[in-house]
Design goal:
27% of the residues lie in helices and 36% in strands. The protein is globular and about 35 Å long. The N and C termini lie far apart (35 Å). It is an alpha+beta fold and 56 residues long.
Amino acid sequence: MEIRKVISNKTDFMDILLVGDEDEAMINKYLGSSKLFALYDNDILTSICAVMYIYF
């Protein structure tokens, strides 16, 4: 297994992101300011994680 940081073309992962959040407009709102990580198993995408830091 390998975790890869997605730096560009984050919207290429929209199909799998929509599994966790069904509102594409909402995903587009936070995707630009999020760090995106993809988990691959034998070069097959198995999961995706969007991480957003919020400071108070």
